[in-house]
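Thread: Modeling a multi-component assembly for a lab meeting

Hi all, long-time lurker, first post. My supervisor asked me to bring a structural picture of a complex we are working on to next week's group meeting, and I have zero experience with this. I have the sequence lines for every component (861 residues in total). Could someone generate the structure of the whole assembly? Inputs are pasted exactly as I received them:
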Amino acid sequence: MAKFFAITIVVIAILSAIPILRHTWVAPEDISTHGHMIDEQMSETMVEAGISFLAAQLILALFIWQFSNRGSDAKIKSFPGGARALVMAALLLVGAEVLALGVFGVKAWANVYLTPPSANAMPIQVQAGQFAFYFRYPGPDGKLGPIHPELINEGAQDFYGLDLEHDPDSRDDIVTAEMAIPVNKEVHLLMHAKDVGHSFFVRELRVQQDFVPGLDVSLHFTATKVGKYEIVCTQLCGLGHYNMKAYLEVLSPQDFDDWLKKQQAMQ
Amino acid sequence: MHDMSAPAAHHHAPPTSFIRKHVFSLDHKVIGKQYYALALVAALCGMVLSWLMRIHLGWTNVAIPGLQLLSKNGAPGGVMTPEYYLQLMTMHGTIMVFFVLTTAPFAAFGNFFLPIQVGAEDMPFPRINMSSFWVTFLAFVVLMSAFFVGDGPTLGGWTQYAPLNSVGAAAGPGQGLGVVLWMTSIALFCVGQLLGALNFITTTLDLRVKGMSLMRLPLTAWAWFITSCMGLTAFAVLMPACILVILDHVAGTSFFVPSNSVINDQVLPHSGGSTLLWQHLFWFFGHPEVYIAIIPGIGIVSHILITNMRKPMLSQRVLVASMGALAVLSYMVYGHHMFVSGMNPVSALAFSFPTLVITIPATIIVLIQVFSLYGSKLRINSASLFALGFISMFVSGGVTGFFLAQPSIDIMLHATYFVVGHFHMVMGVAAMFGIFAATYFWFPKMAGRMMNETLGKIHFWLSFVGTYCIFMPFHYLGIAGNIRRYSSFPDDFLQPLIPVHRWITVAALITGAAQLIFLYNLIHSRFWGKPAPDNPWEATSLEWSTATPPPGDNFGGKHPVVYHDPYQYGVQSSVGDYLMQTSPEQVKTEHEEK
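Re: Modeling a multi-component assembly
Sure thing. I ran the full set together rather than chain by chain. Output:
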């Protein structure tokens, strides 16, 4: 039984690795300027974690195969290097791995979160509420008017509670249920939660960020490929969480201008 | 016969009434069994909930016969609604994390065996010990009562993020009374754990018998001691956090709800709260909780493997130090759950580094366990199979921690099935394998009868292969971007992944059914199993030096005296290749630790 167990461990380890090696299930194509750094970090980690996984399982299987159910006259032995060698190996190998991942991993993170958006990044506000996203573009004046929570009236399509009468900045704001951005143009996304926690996740853009009620957070990114992509909520927000999504359309600059004008006309 | 010192003065008289003997017992052994029974009932509930969830995820619109009886509104005609899915999911996570993974390896086995392993006749505070169980039992009743009152249990997940947990019924079914019941239950659970931790710590420090120095404690005793120190600090943070949420519901406070939140076009009457405060408080408990669930397993598996290898681990001290390092570091890494939460992004880097570093003591533990197999005379039985299975699972779940420790990769994997696969393997299934190993190993001492080995091995094979069939694909789903906590997958992108979900569902149903073999074995062996000898595994620690089952005061009115380290195997003594801790016999050993 012990030998069969050892073989089972080996078979499971190899079968587990095959879908990874064959890229059976992979993340969707990256369409951002920063995503390649995340993908490279992911690949490096996969190599290191994969080697650790296979090595540990195979050694476990080998020792089970070799040292189980030995006769009563078999002699007990100790691993030659003893605990000291193992501790040193863990400190050196895992320590080096930890340092490498920790240091190189900072680069990708810093690019998304520790670098401010450029001065000409296009501001777009997104508000998340149970269970929809609404997007707001500042219009020709380049300014977003203030939100008045007490004026929010979804029945009247006023998702942000804008006071058009008293807030001149709000008058040209464009509110949409879908998000469109121009390709190769940096976007500065201003995130506002209306009720509870939500999240903004676009797999292809390699961005995921929670909305925090009471705290406006922001993201910045540049999309590099025209297309239509899903925006989904990844923070459990209530009964309709599984269905909370919107679409992101990455358009050519001309198409984006046309789209924005069309949306403005519909306000 | 082993040497015994002067008679022990047992500090509570043997019980005479049925109530004192079996219900409100002061005996740590009965309390340990009560915890085990509670964990068993909880595990069955949690498993059935997971079956229901998996069926829904594979075939969203299928009617599950009888489900409408549990909730008419949650499952009209037996078809689960999205909100009811979330309610069942919340209960599954809560039951499993608190009432199974914390209760069984720590409270159940720790209660039964810690006092015996240190040579004590009981815990120092038997009434507090009894209270800790009954408070925990009450916590379970309060939690389960949510199924039958109001609009059902909370749907906010086992992490109960703010402000969904605080804004009340307007946020969805179960978010009013359901949340209050959840918070009450968990606050009570914390009280139970704090009382338990108090007893565990004092038992270990103050009740060790003559000769039982700290380094002569078995690895299980060390694991329970370290875990109880963690419990004392972690549950002490979660309990007030739960109370603050209850106050937000019933007293009009706003600890976790900020100003200007709008639900149903109404501005909520709250202001000034912080949603991230809850996450900090919760994860300051939540990450140590992972180790509260797994460190007893590490101790149990080491203890069982040593007995079955017939040789000690390569280093007892390194294992103890590594478990201690895990415990300390676990408080410094909790922020890795919050990389994309809106927390300051510089903090993410500060939490990332210790998260990567914690893999070092974890790796040392695995290396010591695996390389100790070298040159051993490994006995294969149900207990050792599950112990070896634990190592395999712990490795598989552990290596995926490398990914989640890095904030940049977390951008892609956060809130996906990759995370679900990771924690199910490393703290869920691994800990469960530890519980099973412990059950097969200690059942003879606890029940006085042997378990059926053939059924135990069938149980192991189905569980081991089944677990990989369930949880490896979780990782693939996560890499592809499959989001967790979705009751179905209407997104275009997720549609092609549904066949994988169906595979997982079938594997989960079969693996779950295999647990019924364990249940049958447990109950059948309890009444009709072969009577167990005092030391069936030829083991060395104190629990095997007393009668089976142990007498009320554990050692028949005497304090044992300890002469040796806990794991004197591979020696030539008068009884065989081992020497019990209580044996005054001196033998030559090649395994003295430098």
